[in-house]
Write the structure tokens for this entry.
Amino acid sequence: MEKNTWSVVDNAINFNSPQGAGIQTAQNVINAGASIVISGHLGPKAYRVLTSADVNVYTASNMKVSDAITAFKEGRLNKLTGPDVEGHW
């Protein structure tokens, strides 16, 4: 955030996975070195994996990525204190 840069982590391999997609995606995010995640929704397993690695998770729905980043910088996003959807929703 300090440098106002971002990167994309390819998640195509996990996108259509019938099982474990949240855990695998969360591990990819951790391996990429992220300290925060801004997501539309987060299930219980992904939430547990991310927070156990001290990754802070925020929710942003129905907005462009640039708007979500601006909202985060302005403190307008809600930090999740638990998953906001059930597994396999």
